[in-house]
Amino acid sequence: MTIDGKAIAGRVMADLIPRAERLAQAAGRKACLAVVLVGDNPASRTYVRAKIKAAELVGIQGKELEFPAGVPQDELLAAVSALDADPSVDGILVQLPLPPQIDPDRVLDAISPAKDVDGFHPANVSSLQLGRPCTIPCTPKGIIRLIDSTGVSIEGKRAVVVGRSNIVGKPVAKLLLDRNATVSIAHSHTRDLKSLTREADILVVATGKRSLVDGSMVKPGAIVIDVGITRTAEGTLGGDVDFASAKDVAAWITPVPGGVGPMTVAMLMENTLECFEARINR
Ligand code: NDP
């Protein structure tokens, strides 16, 4: 069965509307999410637009800041620091990737953990590892919700995560571990990927390699979460999993588009309201 990420994300967002209203009444203003876009990468622009639109839908004020691709690092850092110091801003997101003259670590470090709605700040990353309260990165958080939507318990399952990035692979592996799955992480040096993925009751693929995993690599009855988004020269979107062959083997599978992507945006809205609530209660 297909896991309809778009529909599930729609329900999450609908549930967030009354929460956003309640918090706005308590604070005397709406939550505010600042989204920073650098350069003219069309995919980044699409993501930023989707995030601002989702914010408006939920009742969060979206504030978009755009910089040209050649912006000097100091200028960008100064702008992010100003947002961080602005009491009317509750969450800050800098759309990645950034142009080569910008060190993404310096930019992410300029956002204080309390406004780090992406959960990328080292303080949030280490808290996640230590099992302390923190902002959980949106995509991994959404992936767990999508798995939960199947009604299948994660506990005791064999989970394989393909990809070990800081924004998807590593944090989703930790979240699966926290839910008592037995987790393996594969990467580009993994030998015999197929024999590993065929063991997975839960298979999460986040590589950016189009159709890396096909049906022959999926365990019958598995839950398959396809995180990858790639675009062909003709503009067609696709994932890391060959949906056509995998769908007949898996019990549950996310499509691309319409799977993990919309859930990531919904989790961003949830994280923004969590940051807003924490600031109100401080
Ligand atoms: P990265 O490029 O940071 O990481 C890719 C990972 O895949 C690396 O760990 C790499 O291994 C591994 N990998 C590459 N080739 C292979 C291979 N042949 N076999 C096994 N592992 C391999 O990517 P991200 O994690 O940032 O993103 C992955 C994909 O997910 C992209 O398509 C991205 O666009 C998408 N994405 C989607 C989101 C959404 O909301 N739907 C959100 C974030 C990302 P190694 O470490 O050895 O290099």
Overview of the structural elements:
The chain has 282 residues and is of the alpha/beta class. It folds into 2 domains: 25-114, 3-Layer(aba) Sandwich (Rossmann fold), CATH 3.40.50; 138-261, 3-Layer(aba) Sandwich (Rossmann fold), CATH 3.40.50.720. It is built from 10 helices and 10 strands. The protein has a 5-stranded parallel β-sheet. α2 links the parallel β1 (32-38) and β2. α6 (138-148) crosses α7. The chain is globular. The model has no long low-confidence stretch (mean pLDDT 97). Bound molecules: NADPH dihydro-nicotinamide-adenine-dinucleotide phosphate.
Order of helices and strands: HEHEHEHHHEHEHEEEEHEH
CATH fold assignment of the largest domain: Rossmann fold
Q: Ions, cofactors, ligands: which are bound? A: NADPH dihydro-nicotinamide-adenine-dinucleotide phosphate
**Can you give the mean pLDDT?**
97
Radius of gyration: 19 Å
Secondary structure: elements and pairs:
Elements: H1 5-27, E1 32-38, H2 42-58, E2 61-67, H3 73-85, E3 91-94, H4 104-109, H5 122-130, H6 138-148, E4 158-162, H7 169-178, E5 182-186, H8 193-197, E6 202-205, E7 223-226, E8 230-231, E9 237-238, H9 243-246, E10 252-253, H10 260-280
Bound molecules: NADPH dihydro-nicotinamide-adenine-dinucleotide phosphate.
Gist of the model:
The protein has 282 residues and is of the alpha/beta class.
Provide key terms for this protein:
single chain; 282 residues; alpha/beta; Rossmann fold; 2 domains; 5-stranded parallel sheet; 3-stranded parallel sheet; 10 helices; 10 strands; 42% helix; globular; binds NADPH dihydro-nicotinamide-adenine-dinucleotide phosphate
